[in-house]
Amino acid sequence: MTYVITQxxxxxASCVEVxxxxxxxxGPDEPGFGAAEMLYIHPDECIDCGACEDxxxxxxxxxxxxxxxxxxxxxxxxxxxxxxxxxxxxxxPLPPLGxxxxxxxxxxxxxxxxxxxxxxxxxxxxxxxxxxxITVIDRLATPYGLVRYxxxxxxxxxxxxxxxxxxxxxxxxxxxxxxxxxxxxxxHEELLGSHHAVVYTTGAGEGRSLxxxxxxxxxxxxxxxxxxxxxxHPDRAAMTFPLAHERAVVIGNGNVALDLARLLLxxxxxxxxxDLAPGALSALAASGIREVVVxxxxxxxxxxxxSPELRALADDPGIDVVVDEADLxxxxxxxxxxxxxxxxxxxxxxxxxxxxxxARPRTDAAKRLVxxxxxxxxxxxxxxxxxxxxxxxxxxxxxxxxxxATGYRxxxxxxxxxxxxxxxxxxxxxxxxxxxATYTAGWxxxxxxxxxxxxxxxxxxxxxxxxxxxxxxxxxxxTGESLDDLLSSRGVIVxxxxxxxTLDTHERESGKEVGxxxxxxxxxxxxxRIAALARV
Length: 536
Known about the structure:
5-stranded parallel β-sheet, alpha/beta
């Protein structure tokens, strides 16, 4: 028997750490890790110990005889990876950890309670180089950032990764302060005054504008807004979108674009068993959308989505996935691939899947996903509301909703240098350039790329830099008022982990009453009120 990694793999690499025979690849220290769509278990080297299954935070690993029917292709895909890549390259050796750092506890504020922030906290809490006091801060009243407000609401297994973050939150070195916004409640300078260092893991939550004529029309929106709406983000839960037209167009073809398409085409039963925000559930259940056209500027050989994400749609009997064979002329074939690594394996998997879809006969499914390539939008059409999109080829596609899924940008923080355009913090190995004792990790550091687990190696690099700076005496002792004293003097109401646990329990119990995994509270004031019940 062997174990098999399936579609919901998050690249967290917890399984790699516990594998006693090193049969899971590519690992975080291997050259192909950054380009891998997922991780793979070698079928001939696995010793059936089950350690990987226990360690997986997203329930993606199964014994081969228990792989669900929907994931059956992954038995062959895991084996095919090793047949394709051959012997795995030796990972580059990690630099030495460094000597133990003398002195009192290192006080670090981690701003942003999404995956990157929790991986930073986990790395700091585990260090043996010095004692550490970690405060995880988020401007929202709820933790987990991208997992709660970005991961598709029907990807419940992926959301299970928060169980590991919750364990870190219980660590003796960690405390949490939610509903606390830097720049509103305290300044960056004040935060730095009460800590040796500040790490910004604030993500990239704003949608990019394409600057197209008509982009401001009702019915034209960004993926950030639509995703935030259906996930119940307090800043976007009250938004409305036109869903009566039978067709929507998504500009961009990454995994977010496919998530959007899947949710817009999902039937009411699939929506109900997700943790979709209540208002979005009602609106999408009544939606008239029957076709989503996902467009890409470049050819199919440059498609940004991953094959597991497309495979999930291709296996849905309620959706006919349409690909024009003429669009696939530029796709590589195996003989054209000179490098046999994780990146080229992913390219080949994607190419084979697209060819398979193009060859499939059309079905009588009630809904359609159409993948189009080589189309650059030039104008959003419409007078008072969106009516369609015009492309550089002259083609016009009629639609009532147009979504830009062309990337995200970071918001930046007052008093901290950031790049114009992207909003990212300029850095060297996580150390923000031009800011004293300030660091960054996650999307705010490297841009909106990779999956949840990608943030783990990113955070480890930043923490290593921070600890090396501390050892070198580059971090000054805090001289300002303590954070809690400062907040108390200003009457700032914060939510701690106990408060969040109260809100979390409320949402889960409310969901059970209506047959759902949770019923999200989307109003921020109501979130704070419920969290405060923990103190009553």
